[in-house]
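cache lookup: miss for this entity combination. No prior model stored, computing from scratch. Input as submitted by user K.M.:
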Amino acid sequence: MKYSAPGTPASIVEVAPRYENFIGGKWLAPTQGKYRVDLSPATAKPITEVADSTPEDVELALDAAHAAKDGWGEASATQRAEVLNAIADVIEKNKESLAVAESWENGKPVRETLAADIPLMVDHFRYFAAAARAEEGRSTEIEKDLIAYHFREPLGVVGQIIPFNFPLLMAAWKLAPALAAGNCSVLKPASPTPWSVLKLMETIEDVLPPGVINVVTGPGAEIGKALAANTRIAKVSFTGETVTGRLIMQYAAQNLIPSTVELGGKSPNIFFSDVMAHDDEFFDKAIEGLVLFAFNKGEVCTAPSRALIQADIYEEFMARCLARIAAIRQGNPLDTDTQMGPQVSKQQIEKISSYVDIGRNEGAEVLIGGSRAKMEGEFADGYYFQPTVLKGENKMRVFQEEIFGPVLAVTTFADDEEALAIANDTLYGLGAGVWTRDGTRAYKMGRKIKAGRVWTNCYHQYPAGAAFGGYKISGIGRENHRMMLDHYSQTKNLLVSYSTKPLGLF
Amino acid sequence: MSEQRITATPAARQAIARLRAERGSGVMFVQSGGCCAGSTPMCYAEGEFVIGDIDVLLGSIDSSPFYIDRRLDEAWHQEQFVLDVADGEPEDFSLAAGDNLHFVTRQPPCAVPAD
């Protein structure tokens, strides 16, 4: 089916002419009264306007978060879990409209937002509601009359900065654990994708205590630093690119606060010969596993952007994969038949084109795609790029640099040792994929690949409960797991003596 | 002092001059490594980004230093960089190169688009 574009009469998504910041449970106009146009990448035409905020607005959001933090921090785990579950319920109830808003602003196909982004958000809030309820402090009888009690206490107010590629899901990944642990948040959406997050706030504002979540939109240079370097945050959490990750950690070091940074990747996806031992359902799954480089049009930090294929199956396996890639349907992201939408912005599509040129100049062979995709009618100006496969060697730049588009770099390997060497020959260590029918080989490869997540006979699954984060320059910290409650808490120790005897030193 | 490995287009130099005039202080550049920021150079107020031993100075453009992480530099094996500007807002915390413009780095000269 085809959903109507948000804001058109038949659409299930209403669009206001402009959106303000969500601060203290209210919609507040930006202090300086400036707004910026928010585009849909499918048409390159405006959706609406959002606040073009300045540091004063960040301060207002921090005021609201600080006003709310004692009440929320002292709420029982039961009360916090009720709110998280209520958020999950209302998102689930509005799944279609949020999915359509997300697709229209980001460009990702609605079949993905309906099947993945929004259901994963719901699951995420429920997971952390459950995790918060199930948490227990620990006590230790250090001596008969000396007891160490450990309590988890919220950090207070946290600053959270999210990227454009999964605006709603990344908001959920950041907000759910922070709130579950009793913190209040000031969240900055990415500059290209603020609107869907504001639609989320519209959706959940009635079930959310004022000030617990505050959203400020605007340019990173203006408000990113105002938030990340602010002495009124107790933690900063960031998902994005590596240089900015360093800057975030620098600000955190200066303020002596913790940080979590989820950064880039250039993830290897390794296919051993035995995937072709039978032409069965598993083999079909492996083909899809390679084609997942085009998931979310390749705008994923964990995109399986390097395919390593065992040399003896290369020709046949690649032929089957290329047939599947050639069949990818590009078009209106709001059509449930569309498999690939437009890249998020003009900047992104120009960068992707330049990388394909770099690859060609280095001698990579273009097996399919390689240029912008021509679309008809209202999508003629959209930022569409063909799914592209480049065959080359791992030392080439297109194997080493994160392209963040639907561009797969393919090479071959002879044996396990070479596969491992190529897989680990990268600055990054976020994700990896291993495909084989041999469980022992899968286990050994998985343990030796230097990456935080090794998908084994699957890829691009992000269930709550599976820890996610980077090795090497792909970041520090984990998300998507109850261990996040540690990352968003202080540990309070009460060391209590039940003895009446003095130490006897003075 | 090592050789200068960065040059700039007239548009980039104008953008730097404008930024310096508007802000009353200098700027610096740090090459990003891909991801959502699209391998664009980040433009910060001078001294904003703390440079470490891991960073390589590619040169300066009108007194604005341009750095790249040594590990990226080695992986990219790109000898010469050209700083330019392109349409669209900058990513992350980078200063804009003007109204709806951002800085980009290109390879000389074949990768510079004809337009």
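stored under new cache key. Chain A has 15 helices and 23 strands.
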